[in-house]
Amino acid sequence: MSLVGPLLLATLLFSVGVYGLIARRNAVLVLISVELMLNAVNINLVAFQNLLFPTDVSASGHMFALFIIGVAAAEVGVGLAIVFNLFRNRASVDVDRVDAMRW
Amino acid sequence: MTGLDLIFAVVGLITAAAAIKTVTSTNLVHAALFLAVTLAGIAGVFLVLSADFLALVQLVVYVGAVAVLFLFGLMLTRAPIGREALDSDHRGLALGVSGALFVLLSGLIIAAFGDVRVDTVGGPRTADIGLALFRDWVLPFEVLSMLLLAALVGAIVLSRREDGESGEVEDVTRILLADDPDLDGVDDADASADGAAGEVRA
């Protein structure tokens, strides 16, 4: 199996996440784009582990992927709580209009 | 081109198409559902790469929990639907940045790993993953559990409503529960029934 396939798929997913991060103005959709980017990194980690180092006893790639999944779950929880607070205070989740702290 | 490459190409194409639809869809709920398809496709990619434990974790955590959380978030914030309401003015800039990033990274990857081919795809068994998790990675594991606890408490504190902070929302809640005595739309039948009940009680 070729190593380039998974790496190119991960690159595409990461680029799509960057596009969504910049182009979307709904805060929940911005969080969704961040999830896409985190998952792209997971594909990279698993591909490198299972294709290049399949006998690594400490399973570093899988471990890092698991930790990234856990951190992403925590990030979604706190991020959605912040978005709900924003919606309660401003009745809108438009990130372009939340610029009170912009320089 | 082996059979594994072929299966990966099919799964990868589905995943990529769903990811692109996720960031271009003009309907919020469709975007969240396409995200679920993308995450399930990534679980399929993990299966093709023979990482079965991670594929199941991906299905349980992402498709089962995170996608549902996003659907709740979209429905609770009641955002408007449509391209102008969802996309900002930076669509051209975003396309340029992400396109340049994709071209740069894929060029680097093809230059670095373009000729790497492996015959057998293997990986640690689930038992090995468990052993490694609780032998070599036990400290990061505990730190991650503390992080999850902190995120749980933080989310509760952030979304808790303090007294007198937002009277508007409380008014809306009271009207929805229909126990406001000044409410106009009370039915006469309900009122008389309430009165009858009150007399019986009296």
Give a description of the structure.
The complex is a heterodimer of chains A (about 100) and B (about 200). Chain A has about 100 residues and is mainly alpha-helical. Helix content of chain A is about 75%, strand content about 0%. Chain A is built from three helices and no strands. In chain A, α1 (about 5-25) packs antiparallel against α2 (about 25-50) and α2 (about 25-50) packs antiparallel against α3. The radius of gyration of chain A is 17 Å and the shape is elongated. The model of chain A has no long low-confidence stretch (mean pLDDT about 90). With about 200 residues, chain B is mainly α. Chain B has nine helices and no strands. At the A-B interface, α1, α2 and α3 of A face α1, α2, α3, α5 and α6 of B.
Distance between the termini of chain B: 86 Å
Beta strands of chain A, count: 0
Helix content of chain A: over 70%
Spatial extent as radius of gyration of chain B? 26 Å
Shape type of chain A: elongated
CATH topology-level name of the domain at 1-85 in chain B: Four Helix Bundle (Hemerythrin (Met), subunit A)
Q: What's the CATH architecture of the domain at 1-85 in chain B? A: Up-down Bundle
Keywords:
heterodimer, A: 103 residues, mainly alpha, 3 helices, 75% helix, B: 202 residues, Four Helix Bundle (Hemerythrin (Met), subunit A), 9 helices
Short description, anyone?
The complex is a heterodimer of chains A (103) and B (202). Chain A has 103 residues and is mainly alpha-helical.
Break the fold down into its secondary structure elements and pairings.
The complex is a heterodimer of chains A (103) and B (202).
Chain A (H helix, E strand, L loop, with lengths): L3 H20 L3 H26 L7 H31 L13
Helix pairs in contact in A: 1-2, 2-3
Chain B lengths: L2 H22 L3 H21 L3 H26 L5 H4 L4 H23 L12 H10 L2 H22 L7 H11 L10 H14 L1
